[in-house]
Amino acid sequence: MKAGEEREKEEKLLHAIGELPEDMVTEAEEYQPKRGQERGRRVWFYPSSKFAAVACAILLAVGAVAGGRALYRIAVNAGPVEADSQSVLENGAMVADGDGGGDETDGQIKKTDSGADGGRQDTGAYDGSRIPVYSAKEKKRVKKYLAGLPDKYLSFQEAKDLGIIRNVEQSYLLKGKEEAYFTEQWIQFCQKIMDNRTCQEIANSSEERHDITCEAAIVIVAYTVEGDPVYDYISYINGEYYWYSDSSKDQFGGGYLDGSYRELRIITEKTKKRKRTGFYLVADSGMTDREIIKMLWSDQGYDEEKFAPVFWIEGEREDLEALRQQSRQYGGN
Amino acid sequence: MRDEEIIQLLWEREEEGILQMQKNYARYLNAVAGRIVPSYEDAEECVNDTWLRAWNSIPPHRPENLAGYLAKIVRNLAISCYKKYHAQKRGGDVVTMALEELSECIADGTRVEDHLEKKVLADAIAAYLKKKSERDRVIFVKRYFYLMEVRELAKAMQMKENTIKSILFRMRGELKGYLKKEGIEL
């Protein structure tokens, strides 16, 4: 009987939707997502093969001349090499040290993946000092902070300078080293939270939680179809995660979602074609991985108050296993 | 031919109006019906019935938006066809089939109260949708008016399926609250 009533309600709605104004119906039919930045994709210039061949030849010639000059100076021991060659060497040293967390002073992206340094990646150390840590009770402050962030597409360097990481799920927007950098930043953020076991244990015991603070925060930016930024703020304070997703800069969004969670769950989905590791903030630790994935993929959608997917990494990384274990051990107690 | 001219022809009972209507909208209506009914033949039948309904209803109606007007007719016909098909598939639910048949004997197949109730509900849903952004409104209408699959919808909107699902989930929740606030109980 109850199912019959439900069915009747559904049918009423279905028929009522059939009576929507004609303009609304045709608007949906004629709607075209804006071109130019499909899913945030930049419109690249695709050169013809002839043009590419000529450009490559010029670049090779320039490179050969610069390299020759540097070699000549070294060979005749004529003092330090000139600025252009020097910067390449300096960059190489910087990358080798793995010290990419905002040490560059000129504010420009340096071509660290060229020449002999092509294999090295600027992974950088996570530095959360530029992101203020706010709890769920400080929603207004979070809103204000996110409102002050740039209302535009951030270049790699701009994001790095602000301490913001990019959503690597949109990996077609990123170069390999940029994706690696942001992924590493995210993992280090998670590691920072998980590693501090004592702090978390103490935080979880009610007697001490007012005395010791364990906190961290991060901001992840993703881009809409039109290239508008959507900022996700994630904070962690004494065992409690707070997530605030701000789409106020999205010309078609304009709202926000937020929630408090008890656990950061790491789930690897495996299909025949691909493996993907997702990071989810979960409100109820009783929720199983299977339930989360089922809700995530269901046609019904999911309730962000129960869980919020916050980051994805393509594939399965071995070094995540320890993080996964820690996450399950300490989450939600 | 422009819509106003087609409507004028229909208004003057010129059969040329039907031909022009078919020329302009056959593909569109087939696509709308095709998403709902299981076979091409059924979709074709719904579209043919739509021409007839449009011919019979103009006049007295004078739609401002012919495409939307026809889409509404074909959608309702396709849903009826779908229901009939499923009733047969379930082993010919006698009551449902009988009611279906009887409903054809009643003008419009609805009581006045039902019609009013449907109108109030439709107006409330439209008012709610008007408050939403164009993108969200389009997603809702594509999903629940045109009954597009989420995958198809995601492709059309150039968005991720999960995003579409999430938007729809949120909108359903909001609509529920909105209808409640407006004093509409289903």
Describe this structure in words.
The complex is a heterodimer of chains A (333) and B (186). With 333 residues, chain A is of the alpha+beta class. Helix content of chain A is 39%, strand content 17%. In chain A, strand 3 and strand 4 form a beta hairpin. The model of chain A is unreliable at 35-47 and 73-122 (pLDDT under 50). With 186 residues, chain B is mainly α. Chain B has helices at residues 3-11, 16-36, 40-57, 66-89, 94-103, 112-131, 134-144, 150-157, 161-181. In chain B, helix 2 crosses helix 3, helix 2 packs across helix 4 and helix 8 packs across helix 9. Residues 101-110 of chain B have low confidence and may be disordered. Chains A and B meet through helix 1 and helix 2 of A and helix 4, helix 6, helix 7, helix 8 and helix 9 of B.
Task: Give a short overview.
The complex is a heterodimer of chains A (333) and B (186). Chain A is of the alpha+beta class.
Q: Supply the helix-strand structural class of chain A.
A: alpha+beta
Strand elements of chain B, count: 0
Strand fraction of chain A? 15-25%
Largest sheet of chain B: none
Number of helices of chain B: 9
Intertermini distance of chain B: 42 Å
- Can you count the beta strands of chain A? 8
Low-pLDDT stretches of chain A are 35-47, 73-122
Essential attributes:
heterodimer; A: alpha+beta; globular; B: 186 residues
Topology of this structure?
The complex is a heterodimer of chains A (333) and B (186).
Chain A: H1 2-17, H2 22-30, H3 49-75, H4 83-97, H5 139-147, H6 156-162, E1 165-166, H7 176-195, H8 197-204, E2 215-223, E3 229-237, E4 240-246, E5 256-261, E6 263-270, E7 275-282, H9 289-297, E8 307-314, H10 320-330
Parallel strand pairs in A: 1-2
Antiparallel strand pairs in A: 2-3, 3-4, 4-5, 6-7, 7-8
Chain B: H1 3-11, H2 16-36, H3 40-57, H4 66-89, H5 94-103, H6 112-131, H7 134-144, H8 150-157, H9 161-181
Helix pairs in contact in B: 1-2, 2-3, 2-4, 3-4, 8-9
